[in-house]
Amino acid sequence: MTSPQTPGITSGRLSQEQLAQNFEDLHAPCDGHEAAVAADRCYFCHDAPCVTACPTDIDIPLFIRQISTGMSEAAARTIFEQNILGGMCARVCPTETLCEEVCVRETAEGKPVEIGRLQRFATDSLMARQGHPFARAEATGKRVAVVGAGPAGLACAHRLAMKGHEVVIYEAKPKPGGLNEYGIATYKTVDDFAAREVDWLLGIGGITIEHGRSLGVEVTLDGLVENFDAVFLGMGLGGVNLLEIDGGEMAGVEDAVSFISALRQAEDRASVSVGRNVVVIGGGMTAVDAAVQAKLLGAQSVTLAYRRSQAEMPASRYEQDLAASKGVHLLCNVMPVAMHGDGAVAEIELEYTQVVDGRVTGTGETMRLPADQVFRAIGQTLAPADGLEQERRKIKVSDTGRTSMDGVWAGGDCTPGEDLTVVAVAEGRDAAEDIHVALMA
Amino acid sequence: MADLTSNFLGIKSPNPFWLASAPPTDKEYNVRRAFEAGWGGVVWKTLGEEGPPVVNVNGPRYGAIYGADRRLLGLNNIELITDRPLEVNLEEMARVKADYPDHALIASIMVPCEEAAWKAILPRVAETNADGIELNFGCPHGMSERGMGAAVGQVPEYIEMVTRWCKQYYDRPVIVKLTPNITDVRKPAAAARNGGADAVSLINTINSITSVDLDSFAPEPTIDGKGSHGGYCGPAVKPIALSMVSEIARDPATAGLPISGIGGVTTWRDAAEFMSLGCGNVQVCTAAMTYGFKIVEEMKRGLSQWMDEKGYRTTADFIGRAVPNVTDWQYLNLNYVTKAKIDQDACIKCGRCYAACEDTSHQAIWMKEGRVFEVNDAECVACNLCVDVCPVEDCITMERMEGGAVDPRTGQTVSNDYANWTTHPNNPMAKAAE
Ligand SMILES: Cc1cc2nc3c(=O)[nH]c(=O)nc-3n(C[C@H](O)[C@H](O)[C@H](O)COP(=O)(O)OP(=O)(O)OC[C@H]3O[C@@H](n4cnc5c(N)ncnc54)[C@H](O)[C@@H]3O)c2cc1C
Ligand SMILES: Cc1cc2nc3c(=O)[nH]c(=O)nc-3n(C[C@H](O)[C@H](O)[C@H](O)COP(=O)(O)O)c2cc1C
Ligand code: SF4
Ligand code: SF4
Ligand code: SF4
C-alpha cells in the first residue's frame, strides 16, 4: 500500500475519501441566516474604505445592504456591474489584504465584515437562479480581438460585448479561464466553478473563443491589428523563472505552476504524483498553493523555503497560517544552493541568508533537507512580446491600458501591477471602456 | 425592467421615494445633493411666517433607541420648523425647482391659524413654482405650544378650515400632513377631505421620551438638566404608521383619498408595504438621517427587482393591493385552524419556545428527554408566540388543519366553510347565518 511514507514521487498516497475531504471548499458557503447576521454588521460607511480597497470598486456597503433587505440577486447585480467575475473573486481574493483589511470593523474590533463570503452568497444566488443578467447594447459593427481567455481577457471581452461590439478571443489552451482554470488552488474553486462561470459569462453573447490559436504561433499581432478595430492583450505570464544552481535541472525539480495545473485538470486526484519529502522554493501565493496541495495529496513532509524573513513573504499572513495549519513547515531566510542525488534529486542544500544593504546574501552556513521533489515557485515571466515597449519586464501601459502600439491595449498579469485575479478584471474592464470610447469617437 | 416613475396628484417624479420635510430638506445644498443621489422628490423643511424665524435649542435635539449592535431603531427630536428666513428658503426653492423640473418639490407650511397668515404666504410659495404644498399639522413639540402644528392637527374643524383657505388661495395640490398624536386618525383625514385636500400624508412624529438619565433624573435629550418630550420616528414607528394608513385607506369616509406614506421607511420593502396599503408614494426622513442620501439606491434597486420578480410594470400595479385584506376582527374566519409545528432538523434546542409557551401561554410545548421540543396539538391554540420568539427562521411553522380533521384541542371537526364572530353561537348579538 502506498502511503505518505512511501519513498520517491508516487500517486495514491491517500484514500479517495481522505482526498475528497482534503480538497473540500476552503470556506463553506454561508446560508441565508448566516448571511443576514454577517450583513447586519456592515455600517454602510460613507465613502467606504472597503470600496477604495477593492481594485474593481464594487459598491460593498450597497450590496451588503441589499443582502440585508432580502435582495441577494439585486446585490449580485450591484457586484457584477463592477466585476463580472465577482463570483471567482469572492472565492480567491486575498480579502485580508484588500477590502476586509481596511473595513472599519477590522480597525475597531479586529473582526471585519465578511465581505468575501457575502459576495459569494450574493453571486451564487443569482447564478443559481438567473441566466445572464445583462443585455447587449445595439450592435456597433466594430470587432475587437482579445488574446487570452483569462480574467483580464474575459472581463474585457464581456464589457466590450455589452457595449455592442463583436469579440473574438484567441486562446492558446483547450479550456478558457486562464489561471482560474489552471492555477487557482483546488479548494478555492470547487465543483468546476471556473468553467461554469465562463459559460455563464459568455451568456452575454457576441463573444467567440478560438481555442488552440496562440499569438506568435497561429496568429500575429500585426495580423490582429490589421483585421480588427482594436486588440486587447491579456495573455498573462507564459514563462517561468528557472533555478540557476547546481542540479537545478535534475529529475524531481519541477515547476510549481505545472504541478498545480496538472492537479486542477486531473479527473482523479489519486492519480497525481507527489513526493514523500517536498520542498517548495518561494514565498508567494503560488508557493503556498503548491505546498498546501502537496501536503493535501499526502506528502509526508512539506517545507516552504523562502529567502527573506517571514514578515517579508509576499503571501499574506492568512495564507501563511493556512499553510501552517495544513502542516506545511515554513522555513525562512534560506536560499537553495544545490541539489544532490543520483540522477533524481534526493536532498536540497540550503544556505542561511541575511540582508546586507538591501540585498539577500548567504551567511556561508548551509544545511541539507531530504527532498525527492522540489517545486520552483520563484515567479513567472512575460513571454516575449515583440514590438511593445516594456516596463519592469512587463508590457508598458497607460492608466487605461494603452500600449505603445496604436490600437493595442493590454491588462492583467502581462502588465505591471499586482498579479491578482481582481486586478486583472479591473484592468480588462477599464481597457474595454477606453477601447469603446476610442472606437465610438 | 420595472418602471419606477411616479405620478402623485399629477406631480411626476422619477421614483416614489421623497424626502420628508425635515433637516435633510432644509436647504438648497441638501436638496440638490439629494436629487443627485437619486431621490425622486422632496418636501422642503417646513416654512414659517415672514419675520424673525423660530430659534432652535443649542444643545442636543435628538435622542435614540438602539437595537443590538447599536442599530438605530428609533429617533426622537425636539427640533422646530426651519430656523432660516422665509425669503431665503423661497429663493432657494425657486432655484432648485428651475434646475430640477422633473423632480418633485413640495413646500411644507406652518403659519398661525388665521386666514390672513395663509393668504399672505401662499402666493409667495406659488411664485417658487413648487409642485404643491404640504400643511404641517403634525409637529408635536414646541410649535404646538404656540397653537400650531399638532395643536391644529388635533382639532378636525381647524384642519378643514385651513385646508379650505389653502384651496382658495393656492391652485396646486394641497397635501395635509397628519399627526399620529390623536385617538382616531380617520377624523382629521375626513376633515382634510371635507376641506378639499388633494391628499393626506402621514405620520408625523409621535410624542415620546426616549430615556431618562438615572444620574441627573432628566429625560433625554437633556438641555441643561431639563428635557421636553420630542417626536419619535424611524423603524420603530412603522407599525403605527401602517395601521393609520390602512384605516384611512379603508374607511368609507376617506377611502380613495390619495395618501403619501411616512414613518420608518428604511428599505424597499417598507416602501412596498406602505404602497400596498394604498400610499401613492412614500416619504423618508430617519433612514436618510441615519445612513445618508445614498440609502435611496437600495430602495430603488430593491423595489425594481421585486417588481420584476412579480411582473409588475409600474407602481400602479401594486398600489392598494393589500387594502381589501385589511378588515375588522369580527370578520376573521374562526374556522381557520392552525397548529404550530417544530422542524426537528432546524431546531437548535434553545428552549425559548418552551419557556414562552409554558410560562405565558398555553402549555402546549413538551420538553422531552434530550431537549427535544414538540408541540402538543391538544393544547396548542396557534397563538404564534413560539414562532415569534424562536431564533431560527422557519423552524416553527403554522400548519393549517384540513377540513374534516378533528382538532384535538376542541374535539370538533374542522370545517372548510368561512364563519366569523358575527354568526358565532357565543355571540349574544349573532345574526342568523344567511
Ligand atoms: C498558482 C497560482 C495561484 C494563484 N492564486 C491566486 C489567488 O488565490 N487569488 C488571486 O487573486 N490571484 C491568484 N493568482 C494570480 C491570478 O491567477 C492572476 O493574477 C490572474 O489569473 C491574471 O489574469 P490574466 O488574465 O492576466 O492572466 P491568466 O490568468 O494567466 O490568463 C492568460 C490567458 O492567456 C492565454 N495565453 C497565454 N499566452 C497566449 C498566447 N500567446 N496566445 C493566446 N493565448 C495565450 C493563457 O492560456 C491564459 O488562458 C494565482 C496565480 C497562480 C499562478
Ligand atoms: C429632526 C426632525 C425634524 C423634523 N421636522 C419636520 C418639519 O419641519 N416638518 C414636518 O412636517 N415634519 C418634520 N419632521 C417629521 C418627518 O418629516 C417625518 O414625518 C417623521 O420623521 C417620520 O418619518 P421617518 O420615520 O422616516 O423619520 C421632522 C423629523 C425629524 C426627525
Ligand atoms: S468598511 Fe466595513 S462596515 Fe464599512 S461599509 Fe465597508 S464592509 Fe461595511
Ligand atoms: S452631527 Fe454635525 S452638527 Fe451635529 S453634533 Fe455632530 S458634528 Fe455637530
Ligand atoms: S425556540 Fe426554536 S430553536 Fe429554540 S427550542 Fe424552540 S423550536 Fe427549537
Automatic annotation (TrEMBL), chain A:
**Where in this chain does the record put each Dihydroprymidine dehydrogenase domain?**
21-129
Q: Which Pfam families match?
A: Fer4_20, Pyr_redox_2
Q: Which GO terms describe its molecular function?
A: iron-sulfur cluster binding; oxidoreductase activity
InterPro entries xref list: DPD_II, FAD/NAD-bd_sf, FAD/NAD-binding_dom, Helical_ferredxn
Looking at the record's lineage, which domain of life comes first? Bacteria
Kindly indicate where the leader peptide sits in this chain. Answer: none
The organism named in the record is Antarctobacter heliothermus
Q: Which residues form the FAD/NAD(P)-binding domain?
A: 143-428
For this entry, the protein name equals: Glutamate synthase (NADPH/NADH) small chain
Higher taxonomy: Bacteria, Pseudomonadati, Pseudomonadota, Alphaproteobacteria, Rhodobacterales
From TrEMBL, chain B:
Under Gene Ontology molecular function, one entry of this record is: dihydropyrimidine dehydrogenase (NAD+) activity
Boundaries of every 4Fe-4S ferredoxin-type domain copy: 338-370, 371-401
Q: Which reaction does it catalyse?
A: 5,6-dihydrothymine + NAD(+) = thymine + NADH + H(+); 5,6-dihydrouracil + NAD(+) = uracil + NADH + H(+)
Q: Pfam families recorded for this chain?
A: DHO_dh (PF01180), Fer4_21 (PF14697)
| Keyword Metal-binding recorded | yes
Q: What does this protein do?
A: Involved in pyrimidine base degradation. Catalyzes physiologically the reduction of uracil to 5,6-dihydrouracil (DHU) by using NADH as a specific cosubstrate. It also catalyzes the reverse reaction and the reduction of thymine to 5,6-dihydrothymine (DHT).
UniProt name for this protein: dihydrouracil dehydrogenase (NAD(+))
Q: Which organism is it from?
A: Antarctobacter heliothermus
